[in-house]
Design brief:
By secondary structure, this protein is an alpha+beta fold. About 15% of the residues lie in helices and about 10% in strands. Strands 1-2 form a two-stranded antiparallel ribbon.
C-alpha cells in the first residue's frame, strides 16, 4: 500500500538526514515542520 504523506514541493529547505539506500528518504528539520504547523495527519 502506498500512502501519500506530503503532497507538494519544499523549496530551499535544509535536509537534515537521508538514507542513500532507501529511495525517497529524507528528514526535514522539526523546527521547519513546526513553523508549517504540520501535524502528520491526512486531510482529504
Amino acid at each position: 500500500m502506498i500512502r501519500t504523506m506530503l503532497q507538494g514541493k519544499l523549496h530551499r529547505v535544509k535536509v537534515t538526514q537521508a538514507d542513500l539506500h532507501y529511495e525517497g528518504s529524507c528528514a526535514i528539520d522539526q523546527d521547519f515542520l513546526d513553523a508549517l504547523r504540520y501535524s502528520g495527519k491526512r486531510s482529504d
